[in-house]
Write a structure and sequence with these properties.
The structure is a single chain. The chain has 141 residues and is α+β, with helices and mostly antiparallel strands. The chain has one domain: Roll (Ubiquitin Conjugating Enzyme). The chain has helices spanning 14-26, 102-105, 113-124, 127-130, and strands at residues 2-3, 9-10, 34-38, 48-55, 59-66, 77-80. Strand 4 (48-55) and strand 5 form a beta hairpin. The protein is globular and about 50 Å long.
């Protein structure tokens, strides 16, 4: 949702919102420790996204992000491809548990893929997760 100069609320269509997010990512306007972009650049529905988070002494964690038809009214589905041990990640599937990550639990139309990745990176560095033993680099779910 965005407010116009006259104070009207305008709901930005799904594809416009995703195009804004893709453009921001491609221009490198966000935090350099995260990355995200379309799996298939020809995907006109912009459903499947790759994501990455640089953390843990230079380790890179790969993620898959799915923006359903309900996006941005509903949060994306996020799962780690790289194996990671975190309190908000299902250790069988790699899926991020929506109720355990604030950025997904408090999702609204103004939230973004970038904010979810930043929240995951911050969670990696939380006291609860820093103490957890991590799987060997290169292992996947």
């Amino acid at each position: 949702m965005q407010k116009t100069s006259t104070g009207e609320t305008v709901i930005v269509p799904r594809n416009f919102k995703l195009l804004e997010e893709l453009e921001r990512s491609e221009k490198g306007l966000g935090e350099m420790a995260i990355s995200y972009g379309l799996v298939d650049p020809g995907d006109t529905f912009m459903t499947e996204w790759n994501g990455g988070i640089l953390a843990y002494d230079g380790r890179f964690f790969e993620l898959r992000i799915t923006c359903t038809d309900e996006y941005p009214a509903a949060p994306p589905k996020v799962r780690f491809v790289s194996r990671i041990n975190m309190t908000c990640v299902d250790q069988t599937t790699g899926e991020v548990i929506q109720s355990k990550l604030t950025a997904l639990r408090h999702w609204n139309r103004n939230s973004s893929i970038e904010q979810v990745l930043l929240a995951l990176r911050a969670e990696m560095y939380s006291e609860a997760n820093r103490r957890l033993r991590q799987p060997p680099d290169g292992t996947t779910f």
